[in-house]
């Protein structure tokens, strides 16, 4: 091969090999990203399916239990023995519902890799401790309650707490924040605002609100407004 052609071939090899390597790495990264996105999508679908199944099974048992308790109450004065049998059936439905809950929690634990918690779930009365934790990080937090507090279902309390917790976690770059609980007829509104940079809300906050039949909106990426039914 003439020296010129040899030199050109060598130069092309030197130039093109790194380029080819960069393209290969880019394609591998893209493939990994697409694979992760597909996996995340499948996990989201599976999680929704599990939640739906849990809702349907438990709702059935609770409906049977409620009907049984109502029937037992109505027949208590007329036929105590029959009422006792009816209440026993309602009790058994309650046990089955609890068993299904424990089974589905086990499934979710295997799915997420997070074991079921044995500690009490946080409630609205635990919000002051959460805000104190945020203050210890240097964030100035103001807490306001508007309206008269009303009884709240445990699931609503937990979701409200988690929404505040996630919103404050996202405000790590802020200097001050305001947490407001607004009590309205049939609803609890949770509003968290801060002076940090704009950001997208976490998916779990929207999911928590939606699962309860509530809504969650944002404004300017610096405020979170959730409206949750009380029970």
TrEMBL record:
Residues 46-108 form the Signal transduction histidine kinase subgroup 3 dimerisation and phosphoacceptor domain. Its EC number is 2.7.13.3. Gene3D superfamilies: 1.20.5.1930, Histidine kinase-like ATPase, C-terminal domain (3.30.565.10). Transmembrane segments: none annotated. It catalyses: ATP + protein L-histidine = ADP + protein N-phospho-L-histidine. Keywords: ATP-binding, Kinase, Nucleotide-binding, Phosphoprotein, Transferase, Two-component regulatory system. Coiled coil: none annotated. One of its GO terms (cellular component) is membrane. It is an enzyme of class 2 (transferase). The keyword ATP-binding applies. This is histidine kinase. It comes from Nonomuraea dietziae.
